[in-house]
Amino acid sequence: MTAVSQSPLARAPRGAAPRTGKPRRNALLWVAEHAALVAVGVLTIAPILFVVLTSLMSSNQALTASIIPKPFDLSNYGKVFTQLPLAQWFGNSALYAVLATAFMLVSSVPAAYALAQIKFKGANLVFTVIIVAMLLPPQVTAVPVYVMWSHLHLTGTLWPLILPNLLGDAFSIFLLRQFFMTIPKEYGDAARIDGCGEWRVLWRVIVPMARPGIASAAIFMFFHSWNDYYGPLLYASENQAAWPVAYGLATFRGQHGTDWSMTMAMTVVVMVPVVVIFFFAQKAFVEGIALTGVKG
Amino acid sequence: MSAPTRTASGREARLGRSSRPADPTGSGAAPTPAPPRRRRSAESRRRLVALGMLAPALAGLAVFFAYPLVASVFYSFTRYNQLQEPQFVGLLNYRFLFTQDPQIGPAVLNTIWFVVILVPVRIVFGLLVAGLLSRAKTMTGFWRTLFYLPALVPPVASVVAFVFLFNPGTGPVNQILRVFGIDGPLWFNDPSWSKPSLVILGVWVMGDIMIIFLASLLDVPRDLYEAASLDGATGMQQVRHITLPTISPVIGFAAVTGVIAALQYFTEAAVASSVASGKATIGGGTAALLGYPGTSLLTYTELLYQHGFANFQFGYASAMAVVLFVVTAVVLVFTLRRISVFRPEADQ
After folding, report:
1. B195 within some domain
2. pLDDT > 90? residue B65
């Protein structure tokens, strides 16, 4: 997937015939393309800009037509932490995302390795079942799973969303398997001839080579848990102390009708961790997205 | 299923092993009985290790996939709430679903609307932006990151942000429209604009499919374009006859995963209804908010949620789940084999 990070495609025919007229048309095309890039860029960034600007306004100014905060007011960021149990919700989100990711890695890396690097009868069947499990809407299985967790008295917590990752996550297994498939089998075979067992091959040969892939699967899982709304709605909506931040944001309104400046401050708070992680791990993340849809 | 077998035996041959023994009992092969047996034991040991590595995942598939699927079908023939054990009621739930439930009509129509409008619109815009990006020469990394950024925003946050941006009174969008003398609509508060508003949001967050399209656009061999332009093909002809055919599998992938996502469209619609109505949580028994304004955002999975987890009609919710399963399964049966990443044989 180096293609993603590498140079643009097809400079096409341009510059091939520097005759009359051509350069001017190319220049026009260049201007048009860059104008389009800038336009799309402005439309992309404007919503985020408005959100940040509004989060810096007073509640009253947020209800006016003005765009620039006057004065710049950071107090909304203090208010969301003091007037709401935001720190607790933040902790819940962090616990959910970190544990879900760790549990997923423990269960899904060996499973993906077995599917990608060991030849055995039944591998294709297991893979197909995992694909179907990954693509089926979670609502299809929601009722019996909910009943199961309520028998275990774990509704009202986030554990029904964390613990299943110990038993593998279909999307993560799929993604990791796609990465492991790109590693030639000869590496593992060489280690096997030297007397390594499969676990050692996985740990010593494949894991070091697949670090970007594993990082990508981990980030996907982390983001998925951090962003999750449906899961917490199902299992934790009755217990405010167990809410993650994303769910808390969806339910926040303010005491007297919608308080937009506080809501926007909270929106920024929910976004920041994801954006920070993205900038640190951008490459692995982008490769992961491309690999889910393109390879093969 | 022939390709993997071929690969397996090919690998054995490469490792210098004998091909599959024609006669496993080895009746005539007295001089060399040992190698086949050792091979077989090595093979079964390898299988055992593989299954051991897969054991947690297989248990997970049984507990969280196979069992609930079967149990959903069972519950769908019962009346069941948390207080009483399931009581068999035959096809009652299905009869209510198909003939009586007054909310099922809008829920199904809204869901179909998202499948038919949201999915293609997102693909078209994803393709356009990917195409634009694939031609950029300078600052490619910057543009790519910028255009991807919205896809990263947690869905709840982006919905809350959009309901604010498009709020009729003080939202920046209508303020800007006013500058041009346009009286903006009520967006998320108007039943006929709420779904289009979510489509605008869906386009803003199209970075995920845009990245996939971009990767495949950059994979189109350059020589094809060079050959075509030597033959005098125009830009549009090149797009039609080279670009689109080459990336069509990726468009297919985006379409199938998009349709499946649209069939279970939930978070965006539920949060938009709840925030735009300006009223409290949808979890705390106020399921009437689902679909606000009116029933314009009531999707099939929202209705399922409302019956199952707000009213605890587990039997009826299971019937809805079974119908959703059948619809998804039909989509998958017709499309899954065409998508190479989902095929086990699709290795290197």
Report:
1. yes
2. yes
b/e string for A66-98 if b means 16 or more Cβ within 10 A? Answer: eeebeeebeebbebbeeebebeebbebbbebbe
pTM passes above 0.95: no
Residue B124 has pLDDT above 90, yes or no: yes
- Structural domain spans, chain A: 17-78, 85-251
Q: Which two tokens stand for residue B334?
A: 């017709």
Q: Decide which of 3.40.50.80, 3.40.50.2000, 2.60.120.10, 1.10.3720.10 is the CATH code for A85-251.
A: 1.10.3720.10
Set of chain A residues whose Cβ sits within 8 Å of the Cβ of B141: 5
pLDDT at A17 over 60: no
Structure tokens at A2: 């180096």
Domain extent at residue B205: 94-342
Contact in structure between A86 and A245 (CB atoms under 8 Å): yes
Which residues of chain B neighbour A250 with C-beta distances below 8 Å?
156, 159-160, 270-271, 274-275, 281
Which tops the pLDDT comparison, B166 or B41?
B166
Chain B CB contacts of A16 under 8 Å are 229
Q: Report the residue of chain A nearest B225, measured CA to CA.
A: A12
Q: Is A20 on the interface with B (CB under 8 A)?
A: no
Q: Which of B78, B147, B160 to mutate to test the interface with A (most CBs of A within 10 A)?
A: B160
The CA distance from B89 to the nearest CA of chain A, in Å, is: 18
Which tens digit of pLDDT belongs to each residue from B169-196? 788 999 889 889 998 899 999 999 999 9
**For residue A184, cis peptide bond before it (omega within 30 degrees of 0):** no
Instruction: Give the chain A residue nearest B265 (alpha carbons).
Output: A137
